[in-house]
Every structure is written in structure tokens, then in C-alpha cells.
Amino acid sequence: xxxLPTAPHPxxxxxxxxxxxxxxxxxxxxxxxxxxxxxxxxEVQLARRWREAQDQAALHKLVTPHLRLVIxxxxxxxxxxxxxxxxxxxxxxxxxxxxxxxxxxxxxRFATYAAWWIRAxxxxxxxxxxxxxxxxxxxxxxxxxxxxxxxRARIEAGGQDRLTPQGRRELARQLKVSEADVLHMEGRxxxxxxxxxxxxxxxxxxxxxxxxxxxxPDPEAIIMQQRDGRLKRRWLGRALADLPERERRVLQARFFxxxxxxxxxxxxxxxxxxxxxxxxxxxxxTRLRRRLGDIPDLQREVAAQT
Length: 306
Known about the structure:
mainly alpha, Four Helix Bundle (Hemerythrin (Met), subunit A), Arc Repressor Mutant, subunit A, 3 domains
């Protein structure tokens, strides 16, 4: 596996002095949002130069156009009360992790691959730096932390300004936490909404909120998602074709048929026991995970079926 990159900060030119990186962050954000995207061929060539020859210039050319992905992901976590610039910095670390692990031969666009690493790095940073999470680290509290806004919006669809006691009880029930936890988290999350009302720098009139982009799908993103979806299906098809015949038949019946077929029915059709079908399914999923390698999105799709 390629070692972690030691290239300069991705928002700075390759010759940028590391001590000036914070200034470069503010100065380069708008420029980065306007950088042209790489073509698939350019992406592959740059990734190979970095992976095979540790070409620092190629690494910089590969990651810099994807800073817009870091920025847009960081902004989606703006409600947690942390500085957007810090979120972007952590997202950059995730971007560099993606560059270190990316394998161009797998026919997956770098943006698709990097998105998981960027999001994971930012989410981990939020978890490590919010006091409410540091004092409540159970899975239930983490679920409350990251899902409160979505669930609260659903409950408040009737037009209330804030959660009612009944809504708070329902939220606590869904997430298996106390009503006091919900109330406390609600106040903490609400307090973080002001974080975008600060300027990009001391000598700038522009605010971080000026960088907000429309969350609706844009045509280019739709096209890329469709293309990447076709590539994922093709790659998954190849992985399935490599399975032993009985394991492949079990997975096709369990996960790829129009209607899910029970273990009993599969066993009866194949002349084996229900427990043997379960074993074949587990073996097949293990082989698939190994075959899929370290492409996080594909791994998660398979893992979600277990």
C-alpha cells in the first residue's frame, strides 16, 4: 500500500511554505471552488504517477481540484459549533488518506472514493472535539448527536419552532436516550448555528456562509453518480462471478432476486440444510469483502446486507 502522502497542504501551491498554510487556506478557498474538474484519463494518469513514483506534483494536481468536495462536506457539518476552517483542515487529511489508498485500476472515480474518507475524517474530528460527545460516548449518544437535526425536522414538520415535550419524548424513545439528553443536545446544536457568520479573514468582508452551495443535485454530479453506479455494478458483477457456484447461487437468491428468498426455500431447492445455506452465505460475503478490497462505499454496501 502506498504510504501516507507528505505533500504540502492541498490548498496551497506545491512550493508554499508550510508556515503560511493558514493564510493560504483563506486565500485559496474561492480559487479552489473554481478549479476545473479532472477528466477520468487525467485522474488515472496522476494517480498512477503518485502511486508508482511518489510524484509530489502529480499528487498536488490530483487532490487540489477535489478541495471543493472537502469544503462542501465540511459545511454540512457546520451546525456542530466548530470552526469551518478546522473542519476543512480535517477533511484535507481525509483527502490525503484517500490519495494514499486510491487504486486507479479499479475504475472508480477519485471523488467517489475520496468522499467517504473526507466525511469519516470530519465526523471523527467532530466526535473528538464536542464536549457533549466526550462525556457521553455510548453508541446511543453518538446516534443522537448526528441524527438529532434530521429527526427533529421530521417531528417539527407541523410548523413548531422547537420540539414539544411529546416530540422530545418520541425522539428519546427512537434513539434510546433520556429526554434530558435530547434537551441538552438540542441546546448545544442550536448554539452552533452562528458559526458561519464570521468572515473568511480579518481583512475580508466575505463570510463562510457566502461559500454555501445549493444542496440540490447539479447535472454534472448526476452524470458522475450514474457513471460511477454503472462501474460499481460491473465490478460487483465480476466479484460475484469469481465465487464458487453454490455461494453465488445463494447470494443471488438472497440479495439480487426480485423478492428475497428464505434460507429454508433455498435449502430445499439446493437439497441442503438451512444451516448449510447460512454458512454458504457467510462464506460468500466474506469472499466478496476481500475481493472488494478497500473501496469503502462498496464494502459498506455489502456489509449492510449482513
